[in-house]
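tool_log.txt
---
The assistant was asked to compare two proteins side by side. It first ran the structure predictor on the initial sequence, then on the second. Raw inputs and outputs are pasted verbatim so the downstream comparison step can read them without reformatting.
(1)
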Amino acid sequence: MMIGKIALTLATGVVALAGLAAAAGGPGDAEIAHIAYTAGVIDIAAGEQALHKSRNGTVRAFAQEMVRDHGAVNEQALALVNELGVTPRDNATSRALKEAADEEIRKLSSLEGTAFDRAYVTNEVSFHRTVNEALRKTLIPGAQNGRLRALLETGLSLFSEHQMHAEGLAAKLG
C-alpha cells in the first residue's frame, strides 16, 4: 500500500513532466537537470535510511550501491552544469518527486526488520521503473545539450541495472 503511493506520486510526476514536454517546447535543460539530480538525491536518502535501519547484509550492500552510484552520477551532473553555466531549475516535477520521497521515508521509518527490507526494496523497484521511464520517454529526448543527454543516457544504463538488481532482490525477499 505505501509503496503504491510513491509509485503513484512518481507516476504523477512523470505525467506532469510529459505535460511540460507538450507545453511550450517541453522542459529545458535546466529543468531536466534538476529533475535528474532530485531523483538521485531521493535514492541516496533512501539508501542512507536503509543503511541505518537494515540488518540484512544483502539489502545493506544494495543500499550502499545506490548511495555510491547515485552520488557519483550527481557529482558528474553538478560538474557538468557548472561547466556549462546552467543553473538547475526547480519545477513541479522535481517538487512532486521530493514530496513523495519525503512521505515514503517517513513511512519506512516506522518499519523494522524484514518488513522494512521488503518495503525498501519494493520501493526501489518502483522508483527505478518510474525514473527509467521518465529518462527514456521525456528527459533524454528533451535534453538539448549533447553532454547532458549523454550523461542521462549513462544514468539510464546504470539505473536499468539497479532496477534489475532490485527486482532480483525483491524476489529473494519475498
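(2)
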Amino acid sequence: MSRPGSPLRILNYSSNTHTREQVRLALGTRLRPDLPEVTYTDVATAPMVITLMDVGGFDLVILDGEAAPFGGMGIAKQLKDEIDDCPPILVLTGRADDAWLANWSRAEAAVPHPIDPIRLGEAVVRLLRSPIR
C-alpha cells in the first residue's frame, strides 16, 4: 500500500469511458474510514497501461476484461509475467462464469459486469488490505 497518509493510487483501464466512470462512481474517493483517500488514473489504451505500470506507484490495477481491442485479462497476464512486484489486479469480467479466465490471467480478483458497487468495493478493500503482493 501507499505510504501512510498518501492517497491510494488505482489504475483504472477500459476502452469504454462509461465503464471507467462506473468504477470511479462505485468506489468513490474513500473506500473505508480507516483507509486513505483514493485517486484514479483513467487509461483508455493498453499501451498506456504498460507505460504507466513501467513507471509504477499504483496500489491496485482494475482492468476491463471486455475492453477492445485489448482485453484486460491478457493485459493482466502480461503485467504479472513482466513486473516483479506487480500490484494486485482486479479484472471486470463479462459475466460471473468468466471468473476462471481472470484466474488464468493471474488476477487476484474478478467482478462481473454490470458493476455492483458493493461487490466491487468489497473486492477492492480485500485486495488493498491483503498482505500478499
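---
observation on (2): The chain has five helices and five strands. The helical segments are 17-27, 46-55, 72-82, 99-104, 117-129.
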